[in-house]
Specification:
With 412 residues, the protein is an alpha+beta fold. The protein is built from eight helices and seven strands, in the order E-E-E-H-H-H-E-H-H-E-E-H-H-H-E. It is elongated. The chain has a five-stranded antiparallel beta sheet with strand order 1-2-3-5-6, with no helix packed on it.
């Protein structure tokens, strides 16, 4: 009004300064706390300088939507579950790698043993050929008998070549599992020094192994974590169906001065404001929240079925692996006894051949049986250890057992 009465221009200079600080915190129960402090001032060449400072606290408490721990901590809880799922996935990968490395080691050990057994088998056939040649020279054995020995010797040399090729395949696979960074690493020749052993605490009752599997199996734990996330989604989306009703309380104090330097906010200022209100937001249509809630429920039901199915699958895997461990454990003693008997049979056939009461065919057959019994004995030990690894892998305790019980073993 003052400026409007003047017909000449007026030189108006005005400076405005405003400072503010605000701190806010959302509590797990949904309560929002906002504390703020402001200072503002205006100075000009025409008006009286004015300045003010204010300090206030605003409390917003949801009463329906956004109320409670379930709705406000949902994202944090799901993030924690995602971390648990990732750890379970890492554990599963680590167990799989550990199982492959151990079975790869026993595979190269067994391949090395089979090469040694086949070499001994060739030596036995060559020895039998030398003895047969001596007997042919003295006329106690017809020359036709040599054909059988030559044919058997050729067959065993073929088997030796196959065994050596199998060793090379096992060696390459083991080196692959060790992940050689240098191309020269593929030329390494691993020397298996660890012989098969029977762990002293290797096997418990099948119910105990099933119980361990229900606790430690990685894929089952991942499914359970996913189910927990699904349950949180149901709670979160169900809360989203409620109307938004918030209770708002604001308390503030204001300080007035002529200079901004004197307008510091004061809690004990006589100028105060108190505001209490309710904010209600009720949408007319809730198609999207209802669809999200229904989807969350269906997903949770699906995850429940998945967990139940995985529990049945885990029980089947563990029980099947337990049966295989029992079978291979019994095979160890059976193959050992068979090898001892086949060795006695071979010695008996050799003695009978030397006195002329046996033939090359029977001696060679006894040698083949003895060689097969040696292979079976070596394979039974390795099969037992591989079955144990598979059992521990199925129940999800392979890493714990290898780390905590590495020294609990009994040499055989």
């Amino acid at each position: 009004r003052f400026l409007g009465t003047r017909t000449t221009p007026v030189d108006l200079r005005q400076d405005r300064n405003q400072y503010g600080l605000q701190l806010s915190q959302l509590l797990p129960f949904g309560t929002s706390l906002t504390a703020n402090a402001t200072m503002s001032g205006t100075t000009s060449n025409l008006y009286v300088a004015q300045a003010s400072g204010a300090v206030g606290l605003t409390i917003t408490q949801p009463l329906l939507q956004g109320f409670g721990f379930g709705a406000n901590l949902a994202d944090l809880r799901k993030a924690n579950l995602d971390a648990d799922i990732t750890r379970a996935e890492l554990k599963a990968v680590a167990e799989e790698v550990a199982a492959q490395v151990e079975t790869g080691y026993w595979a190269i050990y067994l391949a090395d043993q089979e090469v040694a057994i086949q070499k001994k088998s060739v030596d036995l056939a060559e020895q039998q050929l030398r003895e047969s040649l001596e007997r042919v020279k003295v006329g106690s054995l017809p020359e036709l008998e040599l054909a059988t020995v030559h044919a058997e010797l050729a067959t065993r040399r073929e088997a030796l070549i196959d065994a050596q090729s199998g060793y090379e395949q096992a060696r390459l696979r083991f080196l692959y599992l060790l992940n050689p960074g240098d191309p020269a690493g593929w030329n390494l020749m691993p020397l298996p020094t660890e012989r098969p052993f029977i762990p002293t605490d290797s096997l418990d009752s099948v119910s105990e192994h099933v119980e361990l599997g229900m606790r430690f199996r990685s894929d089952l734990n991942q499914a359970r974590f996913a189910l927990s996330k699904g349950a949180i989604d149901v709670v979160q989306t169900r809360n989203g169906l409620l109307p938004k009703l918030d209770l708002i309380v604001t308390l503030s104090r204001t300080t007035y001065a002529k200079a901004i330097n004197d307008a510091y906010p004061e809690i004990d200022s006589p100028f105060r404001d108190q505001i209490v209100g309710v904010n209600l937001l009720f949408p007319l249509t809730e198609r999207k929240p209802i669809a999200q809630y229904n989807r969350a429920k269906r997903t949770r039901d699906q995850l429940e079925q998945s967990v139940a199915n995985l529990e049945r699958m885990a029980q089947f895997d563990i029980r099947s692996a337990h049966i295989e461990v029992l079978r291979t454990r019994q095979q160890i003693n059976a193959t050992r006894v068979s090898r001892e008997l086949q060795e006695r049979k071979l010695d008996a056939e050799h003695e009978k051949f030397r006195v002329g009461k046996s033939t090359n065919y029977l001696v060679l057959q006894a040698q083949r049986d003895f060689t097969a019994s040696q292979r079976d004995e070596a394979r039974s030990m390795v099969s037992y250890l591989e079955a144990l690894v598979n059992l521990y892998l199925m129940e999800g305790t392979l890493l714990e057992r290898k780390i905590g019980r590495a020294s609990c073993r009994e040499r055989v």
